[in-house]
Amino acid sequence: MPGRHARLIGRALAHVEAHLAARLDADVLADRAALSRHHFHRVFQAHVGCSVGAYVTWRRLQRACALLASGREPVLEIALQVGYESAQALAKAMRRELDTTPGAVRRGDAAAWTNLLQPWRPPVTSSPQEPAMQPTRFHTVPAADDRTPPLMALTATARGMVDHSMTRAAQQAFGELMTAVGQAGQMPAIASCIALVPDDPQGPDDAHCRYVAGVVFGHDLSTGSGACMRPDIPLTGSLAWWTIAPGRHAVFTHRGPYGTLHRSWDAIYRDWLPSADVTLRDAPPLELVLNDPTCTAPADLLTELWIPLA
Q: Does the reported pTM lie above 0.85?
């Protein structure tokens, strides 16, 4: 239904305005918007233009600066009103985000703070307008039964966003994963490589944002062929087995560097989803790598984006 997701995001934004002193993260706001936690941060990013964490920080600092500039309340009281646990925490956030201090704003020495308070948005490039995203196909992951085992991926997890990029975490996660698979002699059995970014970034350098790299043995997700295997690989470090949720997926194809994947995610959740007669399923979306980045030009990289549907 066109406009439905915009209205649900509007409910989340209204909750932010009324509860700046409370805990505000993607999980809390997903509940307020009645959207799946697996999809909420991507829907929010697509409609608002920044992450949940960036938006909450923006509104908290905007309110704090307005209170500092217009009143005489102690800095501690203002900090508590906008969700910071101390005057020092507020001052640290203002130095990091605005390059100013509560005292400077109060004295009027930071008159331009209103111009600095903008939620982060991905940089606009000069490339031609990209075509609207449409599903390449629909694919159903079968449910496990007596004859069909669950579809499992061996995963490794790394943390850390640097300057809005998960590249370092991706390299770390895939490095750990492929090293373990190679040592076990199972590289030839890899049939699919996947990735998930399940968290909403709390800023451009979120040290805790997760990148999950995974491989599926024996089963090719792009064709649905082959029997999934679970070789005996020691689960050291962050290695773990993860079950790919069964059910129907809308599958989109992104061509180009991994650094531009966010454009396709935004287009799917902002443009395709509101116009499509579908309901999101409460399962994580994932990326399926279709060609080898070590021997493929960035412009020719192909990645499928899988959106779980009810």
A: no
